[in-house]
Specification:
- By secondary structure, the chain is mostly helical.
- Helix content is 72%, strand content 0%.
- The radius of gyration is 33 Å and the shape is rod-shaped.
- The model has no long low-confidence stretch (mean pLDDT 78).
């Protein structure tokens, strides 16, 4: 029995220390490392990215790339035609 009382006292001290760290909450709820209260700080530090590119963004990107490649083709043709003549 004395050993059980010592264990209980040690457990109560550990609980008090945890309550100081995490705050004394409702006895019905417990704070564990996997609980949302603890994970909330990690989520606030770096927001999660959900989706990729939107269809409208993909269309804008495709149009822009077509313009870029058309300009490169046009610039390349003028250089090639002058080098072929030489």
């Amino acid at each position: 029995m004395p050993e059980l009382r010592k264990q209980r006292e040690a457990t109560e001290e550990a609980l008090l220390a945890l309550e100081k760290v995490f705050g004394a909450g409702d006895k019905a709820t417990t704070v564990t490392p996997s609980s949302p209260a603890v994970k909330k700080t990690a989520a606030q530090a770096k927001p999660a990215r959900k989706g990729g590119i939107t269809p409208a963004g993909r269309k804008r990107l495709a149009e822009r790339m077509k313009q870029i490649w058309a300009a490169k083709r046009a610039a390349g043709q003028t250089k090639r035609s002058s080098s072929k003549k030489a």
